[in-house]
Amino acid sequence: MGSELLGAADWTFNAGRHFGAPAWSIVDGVDVQVGLEPACPGNVAAPIVSLTALKTHVHASEPLVSRFPWYRDWGLATPTENWLATGEAAAECHDQAMDDVTRLLAYEEIRQLAARYAVAVDRRDINALVELFIDDVRVGRDSYGRDALRANFEEQLSAIGPSILNIGTHQIDLIDDDHATGHVYCKCEVAEGDRWIHQAIRYDDTYERRDGRWYIVRRLHKLFYGAEVGVNPLGLPPANWPENPDGLGTLPYEDPTWQAFNDS
Known about the structure:
Strand 7 and strand 8 form a beta hairpin. This protein is of the alpha+beta class. It folds into two domains: 81 residues, no CATH class; 129 residues, Nuclear Transport Factor 2, Chain: A (Roll).
């Protein structure tokens, strides 16, 4: 092969298995950038060669060791084959990079399920709460659907006073593109009658993605402990924050969803 015509503004390929410091050079009028870039999964980083070659002829059959001193160091055996393999390698790395982005988005969307669950419970926002679950969610042994889940939450939350769910550790295991499991650690404070209870909880979750959106399929409430603390904050005088650092605040009583739930 006599030559390869590079017509793209930026022509990039994975140069090999070795690492090198970023460097610049001009070779036969071709702007060559050698640097480090996170490449495919399994490689922390890989050398990337970027040739800005506007309709510049690069003689791929010509020995490249004399033109690219780092070529031999990277162990590239056949110049022409490496040039020709560029497109496939770049496409493969691009696909894997997109897989990484999809995976990161899945992690973040699932974390948001846990966060939104906590906020919805504390605000008694039942509409937002049931929307976090699949539409055919199983409730108890024999009931299914969000209407049944709504009734279940209303019964449970009517039996307690104000709650504070503080989400901590969240382990997520992706099974495939549409299924995952997780463990969510939660520190809870809740009023039960005249008592103020602290609980350490772990939620064992199952998640599923439907129509591009992640939902909770099942959530099991597991308890490390529950203990009454010495002072029930609901009995404190108003804090009138920021006038006083201690005392009873305005949450959750000022939330419209809390008011609607308790007025119903």
